[in-house]
Amino acid sequence: MVYQAAVFDMDGLLLDTERVCMQAFEEACEKLSLPFVKSAYVKIIGCNAKGIETAIMDHYAQYIDYKTLRSTWMEGYWPIVKHQAIPIKAGVIDLLEWLKSQGIPIAVATSTQRELAETKLKLAGLDHYFEHLSTGCEVTFGKPHPEIFLLAAKRLNIHPQQCLAFEDSNNGVRSAVSANMQVYQVPDLVTPSSNIIALGHQIKPSLEIVLKELQSI
């Protein structure tokens, strides 16, 4: 494995945001007397704003309009992610510190919009690790399209094939693999499907395991 840069997803990989977001959605469903269907919810993971709306309404359009549902959902979500530090996932700091010590430039490629992504990283104390931040509002096509990872590589001035990509979601993995990056997946809320496993990338239980593997190369 030869690489010159590293590109990280954010939610569910660096930060334990996905559980916070899902809890807020579940509470919104309760307030609106809607069923919480986890199998429908997890389809949003790794999607940008447009993809989230599509995935949610595939199931919830029969009950409610998206504007009302999202408004109630965000009433529970925004106060947390805009003002509180989201817990950092295990192994994140050690891996970022090691990559920095090796002179490897690091970027983020997240479906989250820029302002919120910057806030999350700053509150968690991670923002100083990254040279560039590519976000969902800056691309035409969200994950699983490769555009956001290609943008991150372009900003780092490193060929995509020379980049390590770190993801938790299946959509994110498809995106990074399509960008021809060397991909590590550390699953969070969603277990990789057989179709995802068949892509042939590295699937590890934690970033701590990933670091040990990279150190041994």
Notes on the structure:
The chain is of the alpha/beta class and 217 residues long. It folds into 2 domains: 142 residues, HAD superfamily/HAD-like (Rossmann fold, 3-Layer(aba) Sandwich); 65 residues. The protein is built from 10 helices and 6 strands, in the order E-H-H-H-H-H-E-H-E-H-E-H-E-H-E-H. A 6-stranded parallel sheet has the order 3-2-1-4-5-6, sandwiched between helices. Helix 1 packs across helix 4. The protein is globular and about 55 Å long. The relative contact order is 0.18.
Kindly list the characteristics that best describe this protein.
globular, 217 residues, alpha/beta, 6 strands
Distance between the termini: 8 Å
CA-atom Rg in angstroms: 17 Å
The percent of residues in helical segments reads 40-55%
Which architecture of the largest domain would the CATH scheme give at its second level? Answer: 3-Layer(aba) Sandwich
Largest sheet: 6 strands, parallel
Total beta strands: 6
Structural class: alpha/beta
**Overall body shape:** globular
Strand content: 5-15%
- Overall pLDDT level: 96
Named CATH topology of the largest domain: Rossmann fold
Strand/helix succession: EHHHHHEHEHEHEHEH
Number of helices: 10
Oligomer: single chain
Strands of the widest sheet, in order across it, are 3-2-1-4-5-6
Overall CATH class of the largest domain = Alpha Beta
The CATH homologous superfamily of the largest domain is named HAD superfamily/HAD-like
Number of separate domains: 2
Spans where pLDDT lies below 50 across 5 or more residues: none
